[in-house]
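Input:
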Amino acid sequence: MRLEPPVPLAALAAIRAPFAEAGAASVEVPVLQPLALLLDLTGEAMRPRLFVVQAEGGEELALRPDFTIPVARAHIDGGKPEGRYAYEGKAFRAAPQGSARAEEFLQIGVEIFGNGDPADSDAEVAALAWRSASAGGRDDLRITFGDIALFGAFVDSLALAPSLATRLKRLFTRPRLLAAELDRADAGEAARPERFVNPLEGVPEGHGAGALRQLWAIAGIEPVGTRPPDEIVRRLAERAEASRTPSLSPAEAKAVRDFLAVSSAPEAALDAVRKLAGPSTASLDAALAGWSRRLANLVARGVPADRMTFAAAFGRAFGYYDGVLFEVRSPALGDERPAAGGGRYDGLPGRLGAPSTLGAVGCAVRPARAFAGGVE
Amino acid sequence: MSAPQNSPLILAIPSKGRLKEQVEAWLADAGLPVSATTGGRGYTARIAALPRVEVRLLSASDIAGALESGEVHLGVTGEDLLRERIADLESRVMLLRALGVGRADLIVAVPKSWLDVETMADLEEVAHMHLVRTGRRLRVATKYIGQTRTFFAGHGIADYRIVESGGATEGAPASGAAEIIVDITTTGATLAANHLKILSDGVILKSQAQLAASLAADWDDERLAVIRQMLGLVEARARAKGSVMLVWPAERDEAARTALAELVARGARPRANGLLLAEGELLAAQSLLAGAGIGPVAATRPEHLFEPVSAAAESLASRLTVGN
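Output:
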């Protein structure tokens, strides 16, 4: 396994210092994590990056690829409603073939669980990442923000048919499918799929599952697996509905494209988003107001306004982030190797078995990248 | 016949099952019957016509590994296994010839009861619904992890995870081990028996047995010469199949050529007092010749039809740096 070049102790102490001031409890988590759980939470695309180990007869485990999931598990197991945790330790990711990246690397970070104003905790965590990464001595750092939830709010503003809006929101983290959807809108009616006929058309509400079972019996189909008949019934109806309702118009597709192209200083970027919005702006207005608070908070916490970028298309194709996310990048390192990164993942605790809706946000710094004298 | 010399060309063929029989039949048909070596305990064999070739019998999956590492020069195995075992296939192995046997498709199959799912796009949506409903990702049972991942990524499917399957993959949805499968199918009968259907755009690979050369193996001019012979023979045999050679009396040659001009225009090849044509044209040729009153006409099937150069052998030669 490739190691990182060492970071001098003084530099490491400087990078660590902001986390010590965050009032977080220090936490240790197991290096070995259940493979099935990691893949469930991050997706199959993570598998090539994982080191997998297995004791004879035991379950498959992976060396932790980051700390977020183990720290969230530890918090949930502790049973407390709120918590803030700082960690420092090695994480492990297999490098792609031919890459010289370190596969075993030091991470320092924080995870915050609680239900305060998310705009406040987002800004706190991003400012922490900024101060820590900056302490490494690089003078070319910038912090780039994105917001997965903002895309949803923007789509809502366009007042589309619900099935279409749901589909677009899902496609945000699947850039290729989203591009194909927008291209179809440009092609207009010619690219519309064939009209889908629901075999259960006309079956009264509440009798769908029974009708589906009859249809299976007539067709000689034996159902396997645990997918609920109701879901199949609902989706058959949705497909028929979607094939009847108008698809995205070229003008709406253009608005979505223009939104995704927004990338500039945050104030200007959010103004641009406001101008591109459609008629029903209630949830978008709320999201933009949240961003105004967040930006003021970031500046108050010492993140220089002229080092911030907001990129509307910045989201991740896999992983668990579902709101604001950010990366501290250095042109000298390249965008592919951020010195720090983090974001909001409110959906994750529930999937790990947290009893109620629990806000969650965190960040991690890679000291070997943040350190100005480092090469990785 | 002399024994293989000190630097043999090693050919790996499957050591068991239907694929072994099919590959041996294919070689025998081309005029290269494989015979067991005395004392080889069934793990080595030889081909009398090619004394420089040492035949090794390995499992179909080990053949892929041996080609990747260069332990063997040539191997015959399924393309599905080559693509699964060798990450960067094109840079490590060269496919020389598809055998036309061992046909199998690598496919994505879902329960037949999913009436709303016909395409990969449907699956993308249903996988997301599964995640939202259960908090878990849709499980895909398969032995073909690499190809599944690449194919699913190409279709933008993110909300799934692979459950590695040891065997009887097609039973996974019924047993509850997974929701859907990616597996090899030949006739589809096993899928149907397990109440599964193939998605309309869910064919990942149309696989068949391939004769493949390792680019990592130790090559020299002599071994390349053996490849040229072997491929020449195999290709000549394939060309000969489906061809018919007609021969008519020499004194009627001109009349026969006039009668068959349209067949030549369609690709039949004139020979001295005769014509080489595709089997499907035989009856057409016979009625034209009979119409012109030409006979007797002999029709024979050639064993081999040789060309001076094997394109596959030459492109292998150009990929290898030979002679240093």
